[in-house]
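Form 7-S
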Amino acid sequence: MLLDFEKPLVELDKRIEQIRQIASETDVDVSEEIRQLEQRSSQLREEIFSSLSPAQRLQLARHPQRPSTLDYIQAISDEWFELHGDRGGFDDPALVGGVGSLGGMSVVMLGHQKGRDTRIMCAVISGWQLLAAIARRCD
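Output:
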């Protein structure tokens, strides 16, 4: 799903990729042109995202492809073991918590896990109880 304000960035990125492909097929050195376009892309990205309206920020926050807590955890942790449920047997899919490893150091990671569709998942008491229990064991 592409948001309206992202279209100029996507078009510029496509153009950069097309130039790269043509350059690789023809063995023409276009590294300077690509560098300039990448610099323009970075500048455009900064301009666009620094001037978003509140409605556009909300669109971005609710974007279905936005990384979730589990995406970040998988990207930064060496190991991850997610803990589920509270003592009553309930599990809250909106909240995640568990133990993991960052650079060889054991850590506890807690976060809100949104759904991949447009529904917004709201935490319930069993999820908060699980996170509180995990946090208490950190000491």
